[in-house]
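Collaborator request log, item 7. Partner lab (contact: R.S.) asked for a structural prediction of carnosine N-methyltransferase to inform their binding assays.
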Amino acid sequence: MFCTVQYSKMIKAYYLEKCVVISLVLWKYFIIYHCYAGLNFSSMIFKVSRVNMSNVSCSENDTKEEEKEEILHYMKVINAFKAYRVTALRALDECERNYHALPPTHKKMIPGNIKAIEESKVCIDCNALVIKEITKFCNEMFINKSYKELAEHVPFTSSDSDKVKSTLKQIVRDWSIDGEEERRLCYMPIIDEITQRLPVSGNKEIHVLVPGCGLGRLPWELAKLGYFAQGNEFSFFMLFTSNFILNKTPGESEADYHQFTLYPWVGKRCNNISWKDALRAVKFPDVFPGSLPFSNRLSMAAGDFMEIYDAEAYWDCVACCFFIDTAPNIISYLEKIYSILKPGGLFVNFGPLLYHFFGMSNERSIELSYQEMVDVIQQVGFVIIKQDWSKGLYTNVPRSMLNYEYNCALLVARKPDPREGYGNSK
Ligand SMILES: C[S@@+](CC[C@H](N)C(=O)[O-])C[C@H]1O[C@@H](n2cnc3c(N)ncnc32)[C@H](O)[C@@H]1O
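Returned to partner:
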């Protein structure tokens, strides 16, 4: 066990009790040390590429134009990550200015307010250090492609900065103890259906695809159970971060790994019950990602799900969690899932119908009601074997005055296998 893991427990307790009295300067060094403590990389054994990440969207036939477009996009995401600190601090500036513009009598009423702003700056510094680690490994993250950063300035948008912040919250969902409840609510129903209906046994390889897998925890859990799991993602925000967590977080064994500290809710200015909630630290990863019992059973494929999966009848199962509604046309997703599943293959879906493209100008978004989706699933050729409803959360904020709770649909369907007769109702 790295001594820092023990040390950080002490620090956490200390942080909770004593932060009020620590001077800002000391506090800053304290947090930065806390974040970096134990990161003596030269002495760590990295299990390099525990998980193969391949960029399937690139091919030798890509035109120069397409290549250029991809590298510009890559740079935009890198730049948005690298600008996190400046962007987040700038957003706090206005809060600080507004505080200082208050009449002295009002300031006196809220002594904790400016303190929370000052502490937020330190938490932002700490997040920036984690982001530095995430971006360190991007250039060589794919087994089949490397990137060289461009010298020219590639601008990013405020929506890119928002994506950096939501990626930090996704770390909580997928790779922290704080995300345990979300994973129990959203991933467990999927895992239960797969283990019941497609149990791992003997030498039979069961191939499960998880499209839009975010930071990869669901395919990781499936690989841990012995499935040959592939996570698919097209967002560089997610891919950089999952590469860091899956392949680069240091450790030696299941019980011996390094945890990082993140402040996912820093900068959240509204609906706070107490500032302590917005400044709460979260540790990740909660498990050592390199501790999968089987090697080579987890892979990650980068690219658009609709474009990179062409092989028909390859997968035993396609498992979607909060993904099916990311399509501009959900019918095309369902047809694709049907075509890439083997006869007898399982489609498991869990999530809401939020329709990510709805209302976007220049996008042709088609929205189906749940009932329509069920009809389409059958028209595509599936036999539905289970439908259920249950609560789902997505990057929920603990102790906030605002939270979303989804009434998620769990739907399990099978692609009929003509050899076994129509129906295949199990
Ligand atoms: C709402 S998130 C869900 C992430 C994860 N499944 C979870 O439950 O935490 C949807 C994810 O799908 C990814 N995504 C959306 N469209 C995609 C596509 N066409 N191909 C691959 N990934 C896609 C997004 O980048 C995003 O990470």
